[in-house]
């Protein structure tokens, strides 16, 4: 989740082509339409941002959420692949999280969840152990894992539903059913890697569809970040054009049950300063107004 490359702020004007794409998206019938949302839940917006001096988001109807990063579970344990965090520290983090929010997302990204089957099984067991520790320390806390299940995979997700690549990806996700059964909420990661807006929509739809396939009706809240992921060297840290960000928000609203807003980590490994005039924040406020008007 954490990206700590230099954040370069750029803005672009609202593109008519993207507006047309957005309109088509909202009108087109799909396999993941609103009728398939379990229980027709109200759409939830959570604050997972790290900005310094940010406003009180509760005034906008944005809810708090606790993010339990690997580093909070111990200083060095995650540098050794097979090592577990300290149970006492996990319990402490869980109890602190419960005082801040009803939801907590555990962010452990170094345990492999695809590849060698036996290694994946070991990873799943470790994830389940940490989950048990959280629930033991803070009963009633709604707990899930960042980014899995399902496995985040852009290129196989954007392939056609009948493609070999999509089938292989789904097969790998099947190995994570134990995690899906154990968590309270699923949190797919839908960060932006490329400027291809249509490709991002297909990626998002597939990720959410996978979460719903084995989520057994559990809420699906997706992580969104208004900047390009740092794996794209030419765009790393650049803020998305306003029309692109609006498209992502509306896509999430159509297919998921909520979003977690993430971002705000500066190039100096410290929280970035809040900018109340940022284009992404203006778009987000407008989006939240429509959510509040039509829950």
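-> sequence recovered:
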């Amino acid at each position: 989740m954490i990206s700590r490359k230099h954040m370069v702020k750029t803005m672009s004007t609202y593109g008519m082509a993207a507006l047309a794409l957005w309109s088509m998206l909202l009108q087109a019938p799909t396999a993941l339409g609103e009728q398939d949302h379990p229980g027709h839940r109200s759409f939830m917006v959570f604050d997972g941002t790290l900005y310094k001096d940010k406003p009180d988001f509760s005034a906008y109807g944005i809810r708090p959420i606790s993010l339990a990063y690997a580093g909070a579970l111990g200083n060095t344990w995650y540098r050794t692949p097979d090592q577990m965090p300290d149970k006492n520290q996990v319990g402490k983090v869980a109890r602190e999280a419960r005082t801040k929010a009803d939801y907590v997302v555990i962010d452990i990204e170094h345990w492999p969840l695809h590849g060698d089957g036996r290694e994946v099984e070991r990873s799943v067991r470790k994830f389940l152990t940490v989950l048990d520790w959280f629930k033991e320390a803070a009963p009633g806390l709604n707990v899930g894992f960042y980014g899995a299940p399902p496995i985040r995979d852009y290129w196989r997700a954007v392939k056609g539903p009948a493609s070999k690549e999509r089938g292989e990806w789904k097969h790998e996700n099947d190995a994570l059913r134990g995690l899906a059964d154990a968590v309270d909420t699923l949190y797919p990661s839908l960060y932006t890697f490329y400027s291809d807006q249509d490709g991002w929509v297909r990626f998002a739809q597939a990720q959410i569809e996978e979460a719903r396939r084995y989520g057994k009706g559990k809420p699906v809240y997706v992580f969104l970040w208004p900047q390009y992921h740092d794996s794209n060297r030419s765009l790393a840290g650049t803020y998305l054009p306003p029309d692109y960000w609006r498209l992502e928000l509306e896509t999430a609203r159509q297919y998921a049950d909520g979003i977690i807003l993430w971002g705000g980590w500066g190039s100096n490994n410290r929280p970035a300063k809040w900018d109340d005039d940022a284009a992404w924040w203006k778009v987000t406020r407008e989006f939240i107004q429509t959510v509040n008007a039509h829950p």
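The CA atoms of residues 228 and 235 lie 6 Å apart.
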